[in-house]
Amino acid sequence: xxxxxxxxxxxxxxxxxxxxxxxxxxxxxxxxxxxxxxxxxxxxxxxxxxxxxxxxxxxxxxxxxxxxxxxxxxxxxxxxxxxxxxxxxxxxxxxxxxxxxxxxxxxxxxxxxxxxxxxxxxxxxxxxxxxxxxxxxxxxxxxxxxxxxxxxxxx
Length: 155
Fold this sequence. Notes:
Blueprint: E1 4-10, H1 16-24, E2 32-39, E3 43-44, E4 47-48, E5 51-56, H2 60-75, E6 78-86, E7 88-90, E8 95-103, H3 106-122, E9 126-132, E10 135-138, H4 143-150
Parallel strand pairs: 1-6
Antiparallel strand pairs: 2-8, 3-4, 5-7, 5-9, 6-8, 9-10
């Protein structure tokens, strides 16, 4: 069966169980489904967070995510893949991002999910602004996220 990739950028929340069910619907070739959900925290370094505002470059973001999804599908034998990323104002406890990968075997599904999350965290064209009692500030990239993404670079 052909692998199916779904990519959505949206303001609305998503249903994790529904997305997982959709990737395996009518499929008997899937032996593993791995999902990762990023959720807005209520504090950072002990400071309360009121909300995150995520912005993106429409068109470019979808194209770049598609490029990395295609790379994941060429690296690992995937049966399906879903990426849903929210934009707009997101409050603590709300979903931000979902990556679901499906394969015949767990190792491919785990590795592809990690690869995509490392990319989304470090290089995808999204910008996050943190809103707190101190005001708002743009969130900068973190060294440990860059180090995690570097392991996927082909030499």
